[in-house]
Amino acid sequence: MKSFEYTITDPVGIHARPAGILVKEVKGFAGSTVTIQKGEKSVNALKLMALMQMGIKQGDTVTVSVEGGDEEAVCAALESFFKANL
Amino acid sequence: MALDYRKCAEEIFSHLGGRDNIISAAHCATRLRLVIADNSKIDKEALENVEGVKGLFDSNGQLQLIIGTGTVNKVYDEFLAVTGMTAATKDEVKQAAASKMPLWKKILKTPGDVFVPILPAIVASGLMMGIVEAIPKFAPAFGQTDWFSFLDLVANTAFALLPVLVAISAARVFGGNIFLGAVIGLMMVHPALINAWTVSSYVGEIPTWSIFFYPIQQVGYQGHVIPVILAVLLMSTIEKWLHKHVPEMIDLFVTPLVTVVCTAYLTFTVIGPVFSVFENWVLAGAQALITVGFGLGAAVMGAIYPLTVVMGLHHMYNVIEAGMISSTGVNTWMPIATAANIAQFGACLAVALKCRNQKTKSVALPSSLSASLGITEPAIFGINFRFMKPFIAGMIGGAVGSLFASWMTGTDMNGNVVKFGATTYGVTGIPGIPAINNIPMYLLLMLISAGVAFAITWFIWNEDEPKKQTANGAPAAKTEAKAPAASVIRCAAGELIQPTPGKVIARENIPDATFADGILGDGVGIEPSEGVVYAPFDGEVTSVFDTKHAITLEKNGMEVLIHVGVNTVNMNGEGFEAFVKEGDTVKAGQKLLTFDSAKIKAAGYSDCVVVLLTNAEELEKVECGIK
Question: Is B28 assigned a catalytic role?
Answer without folding.
Answer: yes
